[in-house]
Structures are given as structure tokens and as C-alpha cells.
Specification:
The complex is a heterodimer. By secondary structure, chain A is α/β, with parallel strands linked by helices. Chain A contains nine helices and 13 strands. Classes of the chains: A alpha/beta, B alpha+beta. Chains A and B meet through strand 12, strand 13 and helix 9 of A and helix 2 and strand 3 of B.
Chain lengths: 320, 110
């Protein structure tokens, strides 16, 4: 039996909604098959008011062993470092977070807001939001760069806007069943099992990427979304085209550019006008190139591939 | 030159554009769209000022009947993302024009 407590800071509940749609394993499987005891969760918990507060206090005192503390949303510091803009159970949420993370065996941040600040931390960041252990790419966040939970691990970051439900449940199962030691984390503390490959890995538009044929509008079935519509699939670490959404699709498969939501900089370019859904260029060359590719190589490869493109690559081959 | 994917209408329009460019139509080939902000500005002008007017499209887009080199990179239509190789056609929604592979415009992107 592993006790899990889930709280929410500056967030939209999107990760909770995602979590409730998990299938492999499902949220119910966590309880029935994997021995996770959900002490409280904002959308599932039955307790209200003082009864919730009592659970939190017992976790902090050790009366209830807190095995996994899950946090969704940013840690809000405003105004003036007090955190008063996000009060919960009679005090600023940031204070609960500090004490609960100190009491927990494992701490898991779910979604961009909890991992690196996400949309609430977009400049000018009026709520003075932070992720648990990062603010965008900068390590530190609300808990500090050196934080480790009682089990000796830093915060386990599962980013995404929202995180895919199965990323959440699979990591929770690994932790709850004593296999946290098998998890290897990358430099941003993301489990490598999910975040080493790219969104582009498994994308159905890869042949259009290869022949440099561009989509020019959302929802088009032909063409690659990277060249014009701002798709960040070649630079974004996620398994969105390996572990499909609702088991059937992904953004890019549906003709919607990847927004790079598992990366610390999301939302990119601080959502400045003209930057969303538009590939940013410098003298016609994309500002952000596929990871590991330099400008000279990209230009050479692209010119050659374009010249070699077969006619079918420029047509809609997905005939019903 | 004909292409199996280039229609007679495309061919006729391509010839007309070629005539305009070789006939001295002055286009805004410079400055090139160096930044995304400049791209957005030019695309905006294509919407508001050009519409379906062919000559205005060519002028604002900075069309030339030869490649332009900028930032040490040659910018011919044939390497541009909007160019359809087999149809010899520019698929940028604001243009949608038949072109030649060695032409160029300032919205070139690779």
C-alpha cells in the first residue's frame, strides 16, 4: 500500500482531467491493482474544509506516511513573496507544499505548470509562479536546486499541457511498486523512458518532412507542419506519436502543430503575437532546427531533398 | 517547358508573369524578409494591399526572374518550402502562383 496525496496550485485542472482518462493503467487500476491509496485529490477527494486540513497535517507530522506527493499547477509566490494569491486550507499553498514535500518519500510534478511554470509563468509572470524545482530552464523553482525527497530523488517531472494520462499512471505505478530506482531522469528530471525520443518519432508526416513538402493550413493531411506552421515536433522530447492520445491520434496526426509543451520554454517566445503556429525564421531559415542539425547542413539537406521529392509527396495520398 | 502537373492555365499565367518581370516590373526584392516580424508585415500587406491583383502580389512579394543571394544563401524558388517541384507552383496561400524554379521572392523560406 502506498499513500498518495495530490494537490493543485496555479492550474486549470487539465492534468487531473487527463489523469482521469488514463487507460494503461487506469486511475481505478492504481487503487485496485497496484495498491495506491489516494488520501485526497482535488477532484476525487470526499473530504472538505477542516477534514482535508487534518489529512495534510497528519502527513506532515508523520501520523500518516506520505509515500507519494503529487503536485499539479504552479507554486504561486505573489504578492510580494507571500503566496497569498493561492490560499488553501487556511494558509498559502506554498507553505503546504514546502512541508509536504519535506515529508514525502517521493515528489512528482505533473504538467508544465508544476514542472517549470508553464503558461502562468509566462512573462511578465504576474502571479510570480514557479515550478516545483524549475522556473523554465533555470533549476531551483520553489523547492530549490538541491531538493531531494526522503527517498533521495529530486522531483520527478512529468511535463505536458496536459501530461498524457498514461505517462502519469505508469510513473505512479513504478514508484508505488518500488521500482523508482529503475527510473532514469534526464537533465530536466523527466523520466527518460518517455522523454528521450521526439514528438516527431512515429509522426505520420515524416515522409513529408523527408521530402520537404510543407503543410500550409491546419488539418491538411499532406505536408509537414514544421516548415511553416510552427510545429516543434523535431525539437520536442515526448512520446506523443508513440503513446497515442486516446489510443488513436496525436496533434500532428490531426494536422495540428506540436507546441513543444513538454519542454521548459513552453509557451515559446512568451506567446508574442505572430509566434504561435508560425515557424520563426531568420532570413528564411528556421530559428530552431531539428535537434543536432546545424544551419549549413540543414540548408544542404533541404535543397537536395526538395529536388528529389517524388510527385506523390506533393499530393494528398490519403484517398478515402 | 511543359510539365505533366502544370496545367495550360498555369503555363499561360507563368508566361505572363515572366513577361512582366523581364519587362522591367519593379518589385520590392529588397529588403529580404529577414525576421519573422518582417514576414508577417509583408504577408499582411499582401492581404490588405494586393488581394487578387497579380502585379501587386509580384511587387510586394519582391519577385525576380533570377535567384537572389542573401546571408550567403541563394534563395531560388526551387528550394523554397512553398514550391511544388512537379507543378512548378508556389503554394504560399497569399501567392498561389505558377513560377519557375530559378525565380525568387523575399518570402523565401527553407
Amino acid at each position: 500500500m502506498a499513500n498518495l496525496l495530490w494537490l493543485q496550485g496555479g492550474a486549470c485542472s487539465g492534468n487531473t482531467m487527463s489523469f482521469l482518462n488514463a487507460e494503461e493503467p487506469s486511475a481505478c487500476d492504481l487503487v485496485t491493482d497496484f495498491g495506491i491509496n489516494v488520501l485526497w485529490q482535488p477532484s476525487l477527494g470526499l473530504e472538505l474544509g477542516d477534514d482535508v486540513k487534518a489529512i495534510l497535517q497528519k502527513c506532515i507530522s508523520g501520523e500518516i506516511q506520505l509515500d507519494i506527493f503529487v503536485f499539479e499547477g504552479t507554486v504561486i509566490d505573489a504578492p510580494n513573496g507571500t503566496g497569498e494569491w493561492n490560499r488553501f486550507c487556511g494558509r498559502p499553498m506554498k507553505e503546504w507544499v514546502k512541508e509536504l514535500t519535506a515529508a514525502a518519500q517521493f515528489v512528482v510534478a505533473i504538467g508544465d505548470c508544476a514542472t517549470w511554470g508553464g503558461i502562468p509563468a509566462t512573462a511578465p509572470n504576474p502571479s510570480d509562479s514557479k515550478g516545483l524545482q524549475f522556473l523554465k530552464r533555470e533549476k531551483g523553482g520553489a523547492l530549490g536546486a538541491n531538493f531531494t525527497s526522503k527517498a533521495g530523488l529530486p522531483v520527478i517531472n512529468i511535463p505536458g499541457c496536459p501530461a498524457h494520462p498514461d505517462w502519469v499512471t505508469q510513473i505512479l505505478v513504478a514508484v508505488a511498486t518500488g521500482r523508482a530506482g529503475d527510473l532514469t531522469l534526464d537533465e530536466f528530471q523527466r523520466p527518460k523512458t518517455f522523454f528521450s525520443s521526439f514528438t516527431q518519432t512515429g509522426c505520420t508526416r515524416n515522409m513529408h518532412f523527408a521530402y520537404k513538402v510543407s503543410s500550409t493550413a491546419f488539418g491538411q493531411r499532406k505536408g509537414c507542419l514544421f516548415y511553416d506552421l510552427g510545429c516543434r515536433g523535431p525539437m520536442t522530447h515526448s512520446p506523443c506519436n508513440r503513446i497515442l492520445w486516446n489510443r488513436v491520434s496525436s496533434k500532428t496526426r490531426a494536422g495540428m502543430p506540436c507546441l513543444g509543451c513538454t519542454e521548459p520554454e513552453f509557451p515559446f517566445f512568451d506567446l508574442a503575437p505572430g509566434t504561435v503556429f508560425k515557424t520563426q525564421t531568420v532570413m528564411g531559415v528556421p530559428k530552431d532546427l531539428p535537434e543536432g542539425v546545424d544551419k549549413k547542413g540543414y540548408v544542404k539537406l533541404t535543397a537536395a531533398a526538395k529536388g528529389a521529392a517524388p510527385a506523390w509527396a506533393e499530393e494528398d495520398i490519403f484517398v478515402v | 517547358m511543359t510539365d505533366r502537373n502544370s496545367s495550360p492555365q498555369d503555363d499561360a499565367l507563368r508566361q505572363k508573369i515572366s513577361g512582366l518581370l523581364s519587362g522591367g516590373l519593379e518589385t520590392e526584392a529588397w529588403p529580404r524578409a529577414e525576421t519573422s516580424e518582417m514576414v508577417n508585415e509583408i504577408v499582411g500587406r499582401l492581404h490588405t494591399d494586393a488581394g487578387d491583383d497579380l502585379e501587386k502580389k509580384l511587387v510586394i512579394g519582391g519577385f525576380t526572374d533570377h535567384p537572389i543571394e542573401a546571408d550567403e544563401i541563394e534563395q531560388p524558388c526551387e528550394t523554397c518550402m512553398y514550391y511544388l517541384v512537379h507543378r512548378r507552383f508556389c503554394e504560399l496561400p497569399e501567392f498561389m502562383l505558377p513560377v519557375e524554379p530559378n525565380w525568387s521572392c523575399r518570402l523565401w523560406r527553407i
